[in-house]
Write a structure and sequence with these properties.
- This protein starts with a helix and ends with a helix.
- It is mostly helical.
- The longest helix has 33 residues.
């Protein structure tokens, strides 16, 4: 049965590989360029159309992009559930699972903390917010998207036992409907461990059903990815039309700092992979190439998960037991790219708003960014929503998100590349140090 699952998995990955042969990533880059140009033309800089008409056009142009984001989110939960359960059941018993899960979570948490520290350090040293005209930037808040400014309330110390208890599901269906990815992974893990204790003839029907669910999800993903260039075009055109090219150009230092931080973390991941596998960073990049290009195109580590799995097993030589557990788990809790972005964005906005957060505030940012990144799903744009929680906690207006939202889409693409690279490197680490 394990071989049957492997063939099915490779077929799912092949469907996404075909999109890379059609240069989907290049189409997305062209869509980004055309979106910015369109946004500039209809935006406030040229005054070719009235502001109300510009807003109307921008909203309609962004319509395909909004549908794209919703469609990606539509398949995330069934994909993660099916992959976690099948990954556990393809293993060699609960003893191996315990060692693997402990080592994997330790790796993910450790690298996420390092990512936040890198982001905070670079932002403090460079000070990108000091290059921004605070008055001009804050004036754009009147045009912000209200939803981005909504921040959740951080639970107090007395609330944490209840928060931890709430992670454990009351029943499977409620967990899957809730959208809480960490709770969904726990639910799927419980079901997968229970299936291990059943005879093969009893577990096979459910495993076959999960394989079919994965196949259906991949058909939907393939449909959706066809519209990725149009979606990126619409989203960037909308943002550029609303904030104007002047505001985007003023964000150049912030973008460079964010890119530098992501690049540094990407190199660290490759060096770790080199150390544990013996393959040079350039060879690893060649083996991961198709996954990284698709991750850039979709901005969703969840959407590329089947291709990630097949690449890890086929090209990196990781046993299926490790790959099918680590990759789905990493899609849920390994958000190093998101963490480094949240650290940089928080310090940047603190500098823009002249908010002195101090050493205690910096430590709080590190803790919160780590926890928020671990708890975020691998879907496009989620980092912006989670960032609002961190900002409000350290005294920065959450509405400041409007200042950085204009350049978030390309950074989201780069963050996804880093996150997916972390998932694949984690598989190499587990292959080296976890017996199987």
């Amino acid at each position: 049965m394990a071989r049957k699952f492997s063939r099915s998995l490779l077929n799912l990955g092949d469907q996404l590989t075909s999109l890379m042969r059609e240069r989907l990533w290049l189409q997305v880059v062209i869509g980004m360029f055309l979106g910015v140009v369109t946004g500039i033309v209809i935006g406030p800089g040229f005054d070719l159309v009235p502001s109300q008409t510009s807003l109307l056009i921008a909203n309609w142009v962004a319509f395909p992009g909004q549908l794209f984001l919703m469609a990606i989110q539509f398949v995330v939960i069934p994909l993660v559930v099916a992959s976690v359960i099948r990954g556990i059941c393809s293993g060699q018993g609960t003893e191996n699972l315990g060692r693997l899960s402990g080592s994997t979570v330790t790796f993910f948490v450790g690298t996420t903390i390092v990512a936040v520290l890198i982001g905070v350090t670079i932002a403090i040293l460079v000070g990108p917010g000091n290059y921004i005209d605070s008055t001009t930037m804050q004036s754009t808040l009147a045009e912000t998207q209200a939803d981005a400014a909504k921040a959740a309330t951080l639970p107090g110390l007395a609330d944490f036992p209840g928060v931890i208890v709430a992670l454990f599901p009351r029943d499977p269906l409620t967990s899957f409907v809730s959208g809480n990815m960490l709770q969904i992974v726990i639910t799927a893990a419980i079901i997968g461990i229970a299936l291990l204790s059943l005879p093969l003839e009893q577990s096979r029907p459910l495993m076959d059903l999960l394989a079919s669910i994965q196949a259906v999800c991949m058909v939907i993903v393939k449909w959706v990815l066809r519209f990725a260039p149009l979606a990126v075009f619409g989203l960037l055109a909308e943002i550029t039309a609303k904030v104007g090219i002047g505001t985007l150009l003023g964000m150049g230092i912030y973008v460079l700092v964010a890119v530098a931080g992501l690049l540094l973390l990407f190199v660290i991941y490759l060096l770790i992979g080199w150390a544990v596998s013996g393959s040079s960073p350039f060879k690893l990049m060649g083996q991961m190439r198709e996954v990284l290009l698709l991750a850039f195109s979709t901005s969703s580590s969840a959407a590329v998960m089947p291709l990630t799995l097949s690449t890890v097993e086929e090209k990196l030589g990781v046993p299926s037991f490790i790959a099918r557990f680590v990759v789905p788990l990493g899609t849920t809790i390994n958000m190093g790219g998101t963490a480094i972005y949240q650290g940089i964005a928080t310090i940047f906005l603190a500098q823009v708003f002249n908010v002195e957060i101090g050493l205690a505030g910096i430590l709080l940012v590190v803790v919160m960014a780590t926890g928020a990144a671990i708890g975020s799903p691998g879907t496009p744009g989620v980092g912006i929503v989670i960032l609002a929680t961190i900002l409000s906690t350290v005294g920065i207006p959450a509405a400041g998100i409007a200042i950085i939202i204009g350049v978030d889409r390309p950074l989201d693409m780069l963050r996804t590349i880093v996150n997916v690279t972390g998932d694949m490197v984690a598989c190499l680490v587990m292959k080296r140090f976890v017996r199987h």
